[in-house]
Amino acid sequence: MAVVAKLHLFSNLPSNPPPQPQPTPQSHRPPKPPIPIPKYPPPKPKKPPTPPNPAFKTHHNRSKYYKPVKQGVLASDDGRTILIGDSGVSYQLPGAPFEFQFSYSETPKVKPLAIREPAFLPFAPPTMNRPWTGKAPMKKAKRNVRLFGSGEEESDGVRRMEMRGGYEVKELFGGELRPRNEVLGRPLSKAEARELIKPYLSSNRQVNLGRDGLTHNMLELIHTHWRREPICKVRSLGVPTVDMNNVCRCLEEKTGGKIIFRVGGIAYLFRGRNYDPRNRPRYPVMLWKPATPVYPKLIQEAPEGLTKAEADVFREKGKKLLPICKLAKNGVYATLVRDVRSAFEECAIVKINCTGMHASDYKKIGAKLKELVPCVLLSFDDEQILMWRGHDWKSMYKRSPKAPSPVHDTTANGMNRSGMHMIMFNKGSEVARNVLDAHYNELLNCFMYLLYINFAQTILADLKKAFYMIILTN
Amino acid sequence: MLCAVSAPTTCITFPRSPLRKLGPRRVTVSAVAVEPDGVASKVEYTPWLIAGLGNPGNKYHGTRHNVGFEMIDRISEEEGIVLNTIQSKTLFGIGCIGEVPVLLAKPQTYMNFSGESVGSLAAYYQVPLRHILLVYDEMSLPNGVLRLQPKGGHGYHNGVKSVMEHLDGRREFPRFCIGIGNPPGTMDMKAYLLQKFSLIERKQVDAALEQGVDAVRTLILNGFNSKVNRFNLGQKYKYHKV
């Protein structure tokens, strides 16, 4: 229709229509909050990291510390000594029942050449024995303890004052160790052992033994397991399983328990009938892992008895050799020693495939094999262990040849056995016995032969019947 | 001291044809086999049943699953035992190795039913369970590796399963396993078993069969002793040589 805007029909109304509300949600402002937005403190500026305490600096991580050592005492501090003895680096504390080591089953028998860090005992110092009160240390005001005694010089020139009613430092090792037989009591019968072990066969509540073998802190761990259950299941995987017998022996000796069942890499340790958790030996826990000392090199260019050229010839041959087995990374290698020994019966060099394992692991396995199967390590390249059986290798078997020559004469073109027989006589009585056997043999042969004949005759009878039937019908 | 005794009638001759009659009884003198290291091993004269498992017919001749048959053929060649009879669905021959009577059998049922034949043969000839030697192919061993076991399981071999079934579920019979290796990659197991050997594998298996005949002889004459263990170990590492 015609524009009626200019007609002043509705003159009361404003000339411009009211502005339409703009539906633009994009530039739509949010409603004001009912309360003012709280102001949070600004984020703290990141402080530069404080330099680490030099007390925590360990030397053996890629450090250049190298100190050659000989056998004997390394460092000693009124009873607390570090010495290198028959069982490698060991720590002696006053009152301890035996020498402490970092690992009881994995310390090699070879003597170390040098150490990689200054010789410190990895245990807590003896003076820090504030007993456990369950509370934080007291504030400074309360810490001042009354001291008694005169502060004058005594006969040896020292001024002494003492704290009365103070703390009593308990004996570190709980006094004398109970003898092992007493703790174990009467030996377990087979039925009892089976009953004890049954609930633990499928459970995975166990102490795991890894590449460091039986460590010192594991002894404490086993005792805490024994506090709750009479059996502690110890499961070893990886390097220590090469020599399970040694691991089990160390377990029994150091913990004082008895292994009642052992399968593969798992051992079930029984604490003993008369075990008393309150009266058990308390060992100080090792606070850090001491650096492994430097041992002589495993592989030499010209190992004992061989020149470098001969060794290289072996290494070349080894490249074409098939490995006898492939080792998994954390597997159980209980049969490895036996397999290597039987492989040496066939060939002078043996190769084991260790791809996927840590280099330190397969080198440790090589070192163990060198001790157990006596052999000479030739090379570790391509993650394979190559070994030679050595000059003074003796076969497990006596001198007789592998495939024994048969007693009788064998002719290759199928002649009948009833020809010549070679006989060796031992004694007259043996001959008499053999004649009896021969009769028995004859009887048996006759019996079997009779069966055969019987069967053959039945077939013959059938054939004859069939033949006659055919003739009759024709 | 070696003393040769030529006795023309030292043992009962097992005839080639079934019609010859038993001759007059002749005395045999057998011996105790004395080995070089002075240990005397007693020969057990109870008869052995050596059964090789395989599929009959030309189509399956020379396939991996039929190595049992090949082994039996080899043994019969070497020992002069002819397989000329048919009894309870097997091709069958009777003879002796040394002084020990031996029955060689090749069941002509297909592999999955070998048990019927072996079981009924053993029952007829009253061969004790410990003297039934089963020769068959084994996929868990590498190609050409042999193994003599006094007892064992079936290893998912249908022939051995059926034999065990027909022997009342007993597993305590000795076995002679001939290794044929795993199928490569994701190849179907049945196709692999019914394939013929490749050239290299054929050579390895031929060499293995020769060694095997010797081993069977030792087993029958001396039973399961340390020699069998040595044989097994030697076979296990025979390809790990340089």
TrEMBL record, chain A:
SUPFAM superfamilies on file: YhbY-like (SSF75471)
Gene3D superfamilies reported in the protein's UniProt record: YhbY-like
Keywords (A to Z) from UniProt: mRNA processing, mRNA splicing, Repeat, Ribonucleoprotein, RNA-binding, Transit peptide
Positions of region (Disordered): 1-64
Record Pfam families: CRS1_YhbY
Domain (CRM): residue spans on this chain: 186-282, 304-400
Keyword field contains Kinase: no
Protein name: CRM domain-containing protein
Species this protein is from: Daucus carota subsp. sativus (Carrot)
TrEMBL record, chain B:
GO molecular function: peptidyl-tRNA hydrolase activity
Gene3D superfamilies: Peptidyl-tRNA hydrolase (3.40.50.1470)
UniProt KW Nucleus keyword: no
Keyword Transit peptide: yes
Pfam families: Pept_tRNA_hydro
InterPro entries for this protein: CRS2-like, Pept_tRNA_hydro, Pept_tRNA_hydro_CS, Pept_tRNA_hydro_sf
Annotated TM spans: none
Keywords: Transit peptide
Coiled-coil segments on the chain, per record: none
The family this protein is said to belong to: Belongs to the PTH family.
Listed PANTHER family: CHLOROPLASTIC GROUP IIB INTRON SPLICING FACILITATOR CRS2-B, CHLOROPLASTIC (PTHR17224:SF3), PEPTIDYL-TRNA HYDROLASE (PTHR17224)
Protein name: Chloroplastic group IIB intron splicing facilitator CRS2, chloroplastic
Species for this entry: Daucus carota subsp. sativus
Lineage of the organism: Eukaryota, Viridiplantae, Streptophyta, Embryophyta, Tracheophyta
